């Protein structure tokens, strides 16, 4: 089972940290899963404008291929102004819908305001549902206060939530095999 972890923002470092934590926890609990982590910061994605995939740049085509080749996803995002970042929405737009259908996805997010956690239910889950993904029902939302001064995830409750998500995600993935 090939799992693709995605840090879905171009700003900050906490999204990468929380996503990597979840990916590492899945890998610890399910060592037979093949894990790959990507960070949108490392790619120059074209803006989705409806052109054929072959006409997008190498980075865009490479990310599309990674999504096509994955069996499931672990998505981390920051919440900006109460919603997902434009770069993540563009990623969803540029990848053909059929790539996502039936694949399991686990969600983790971070933001500066605890109220931003509602964006997972209000903005992100409607997208994953529309794309016909099997969204893990539990998710985690962390704020800046959940990280210490060294930018390490320091909140035991958040780490336990990530362990729980990893377990549910792994079991959902195994059911698909």
TrEMBL record:
UniProt EC number: 1.-.-.-
Endpoints of the signal sequence: none
InterPro entries: Flavoprotein-like_sf, FMN_Rdtase-like_dom, NAD(P)H-dep_FMN_reductase
NADPH-dependent FMN reductase-like domain ranges (all copies): 1-144
SUPFAM superfamilies (UniProt xref): Flavoproteins
Keywords: Flavoprotein, FMN, Oxidoreductase
UniProt-recorded Gene Ontology molecular function terms: oxidoreductase activity
Top-level taxon of the source organism: Bacteria
One Pfam family it belongs to: FMN_red
Name of this chain's protein: NAD(P)H-dependent oxidoreductase
């Amino acid at each position: 089972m090939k799992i693709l972890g995605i840090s879905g923002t171009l700003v900050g470092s906490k999204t990468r940290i929380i996503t990597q934590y979840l990916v590492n926890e899945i890998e610890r609990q399910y060592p037979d899963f093949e894990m790959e982590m990507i960070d949108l910061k490392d790619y120059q994605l074209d803006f989705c404008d409806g052109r054929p995939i072959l006409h997008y740049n190498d980075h865009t085509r490479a990310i599309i291929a990674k999504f096509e080749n994955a069996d499931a996803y672990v998505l981390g995002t920051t919440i900006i102004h109460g919603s997902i970042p434009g770069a993540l929405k563009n990623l969803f737009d540029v990848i053909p819908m059929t790539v996502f259908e039936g694949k399991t996805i686990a969600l983790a997010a971070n933001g500066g305001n605890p109220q931003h956690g509602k964006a997972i239910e209000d903005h992100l889950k409607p997208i994953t549902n529309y794309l016909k993904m099997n969204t893990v029902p539990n998710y985690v939302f962390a704020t800046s206060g959940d990280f210490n001064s060294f930018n390490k995830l320091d909140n035991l409750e958040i780490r336990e939530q990530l362990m729980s998500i990893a377990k549910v995600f792994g079991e959902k993935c195994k059911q698909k095999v």
